């Protein structure tokens, strides 16, 4: 089981504490303004871990922090600390973008009403290997590089270990704070003060304990489900091995062809090529 930190060990790079800090509207609003270099009148109260289910048959998503500005812009802000996620982060942002679009566009509403969306991943590793502090992606024309598609979908990856490129000075200090835990500058010091306030809150500590218990239950259930699936797959493997043996035995003792043996054992026609291939390669 992955190690779950104690309440005292939590830092800004841990999802639970990051979400709590960003639920401070002043901090969250300033972060957005400094990162995007825009003025924001106000934001709707940030929703931690917003779950979006588009249909019972489709994969839902759980967003770490879902924010809407008074201007109608939607932002998903995520903390990413597992470097193994690097390979699938781009496609994760693609799926998040599509799911958010479907969720905000009510049935019968024209697609021109889609909201401007930012998906922002704060990474404690370099997601693309160019040592940049920030990677910003928008859709551009390959043949006409200065031509943007204009779909108002933006994906941003911040890299706490980056040294190349320029960002707002307070965002730069925020990334350094994520990396080192040392708060420099008023904005980052305000975040550190919010963390200190949260750490003295017994209510928030109890909430974290409840959250960790739920996480452990989910992981335990996941392991049990994996064991159940493994047992079922093992039985399937055992059945296949037994049928392989029976086919070979019928060929050797009764002179059956492979096809005759499989038909006699009532192996479905759709599965017969798999058995034939295994016998050939044995």
Give the topology:
Elements: H1 15-22, H2 25-36, E1 47-52, E2 61-68, E3 74-80, H3 89-104, E4 117-123, E5 134-137, E6 153-159, H4 169-180, H5 186-199, H6 202-254, H7 258-264, H8 272-281
Parallel strand pairs: 3-4, 4-6
Antiparallel strand pairs: 1-2, 2-3, 5-6
| Count of separate DSSP helical elements | 8
% residues in beta strands: 5-15%
Largest sheet: 6 strands, mixed
Radius of gyration: 26 Å
Strand order of the largest sheet: 1-2-3-4-6-5
- What coarse outline follows from CA principal-axis ratios? elongated
Low-pLDDT regions: 54-61
What is the typical, i.e. mean, pLDDT? 83
**Strand count:** 6
Can you tell me about this structure?
This protein is α/β, with parallel strands linked by helices. It folds into two domains: 7-200; 220-281, no CATH class. 47% of the residues lie in helices and 14% in strands. The protein is built from eight helices and six strands, in the order ααβββαβββααααα. The protein has helices at residues 15-22, 25-36, 89-104, 169-180, 186-199, 202-254, 258-264, 272-281; strands at residues 47-52, 61-68, 74-80, 117-123, 134-137, 153-159. Strands 1-2-3-4-6-5 form a six-stranded mixed sheet. Strand 3 (74-80), helix 3 and strand 4 form a beta-alpha-beta unit. The two termini are 38 Å apart.
């Amino acid at each position: 089981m992955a190690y779950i930190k104690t309440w005292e060990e939590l830092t800004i790079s841990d999802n639970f504490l990051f979400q709590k800090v960003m639920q401070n509207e002043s901090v969250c609003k300033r972060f957005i303004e400094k990162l995007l270099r825009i003025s924001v009148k106000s934001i709707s109260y940030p929703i931690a871990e917003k779950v979006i289910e588009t249909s019972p048959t489709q994969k839902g998503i759980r967003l770490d922090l879902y924010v809407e500005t008074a201007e109608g812009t939607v932002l998903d802000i995520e903390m990413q600390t597992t470097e193994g996620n690097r390979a699938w982060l781009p496609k994760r942002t693609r799926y998040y973008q599509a799911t958010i679009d479907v969720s905000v566009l009510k049935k019968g509403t024209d697609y021109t009403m889609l909201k401007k969306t930012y998906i922002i991943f704060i990474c404690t590793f370099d997601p693309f290997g160019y040592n940049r502090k920030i990677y910003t992606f928008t859709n551009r024309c390959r043949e006409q590089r200065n031509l943007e598609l204009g779909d108002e979908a933006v994906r941003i990856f911040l890299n706490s270990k980056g040294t190349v490129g320029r960002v707002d000075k307070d965002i730069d200090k925020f990334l350094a704070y994520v990396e080192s835990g040392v708060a420099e500058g008023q904005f980052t010091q305000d975040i550190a003060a919010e963390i200190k306030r949260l750490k003295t809150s017994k209510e928030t500590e109890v909430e974290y304990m409840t959250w960790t218990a739920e996480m452990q239950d989910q992981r335990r259930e996941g392991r049990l489900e994996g064991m159940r699936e493994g047992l079922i797959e093992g039985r399937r493997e055992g059945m296949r091995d037994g049928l392989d043996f029976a086919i070979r035995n019928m060929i050797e003792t009764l002179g059956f062809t492979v096809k005759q043996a499989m038909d006699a054992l009532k192996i479905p026609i759709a599965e017969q090529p798999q058995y034939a291939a295994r016998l050939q390669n044995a």
